[in-house]
Structures are given as C-alpha cells and as structure tokens.
Specification:
three-stranded antiparallel β-sheet
Length: 96
C-alpha cells in the first residue's frame, strides 16, 4: 500500500472491486466497529498498519496506508517502480 502523502496517487477514476466497495460501505455505516483498522476519507479506504517499533515513538500517526483497489494495483506499482529515480544506489550505498 502506498504511503499516504507520498507520490501522486490521491484518487482513482473508477473503483470496481466488489470487496473494496463493500468494505468502504461497511466502514462508513459503522465506523466505530472498524476505527482501529480501517477508515474512509474522501471516499478512499485506508488501513492502519501497526508497527510495534515505531508506533510508541510516532503515536501511530504514520500507520495509515491507502488501500489500493485490485484493478489499480498494477498501475500503482508501475508508477512507483518504473521511474529512473525509483531504484536504489546499490548494495554498498544501501548499507552505508
């Protein structure tokens, strides 16, 4: 799932994934039931990903990630990985 606020993905033109649509409806209808794991903002679904190492430091603020509908995952992966700047600087610089 892309990190909220990073990159260009802010909305999807159409969402056809039945699971995604159903979960959005459930979260909107009963947000208190899903408040610790799922939330909907501007019609988009976000999932909280717990990080036992960073949550005590960041108070869980950075744990919310955009849930990408199945029909848009390929595009998201391509957008995030096909750019020249998407690579890393090699093994040595990665560990430095």
């Amino acid at each position: 799932m892309p990190i909220q606020g990073e990159g260009e993905i802010t909305a999807f033109a159409t969402i056809e994934n039945p699971w995604y649509i159903s979960l959005v409806a459930k979260v909107v209808q009963t947000p208190q039931k899903f408040k610790k794991k799922w939330r909907v903002e501007d019609g988009l679904l976000y999932k909280f990903r717990e990080d036992k190492l960073l949550d005590p430091i960041e108070d869980g603020i950075e744990g919310w990630r955009l849930a990408v509908p199945a029909e848009h995952r390929q595009r998201v992966l391509e957008d995030a990985h096909n750019e020249v700047t998407a690579g890393h600087l090699g093994l040595e610089k990665t560990y430095d």
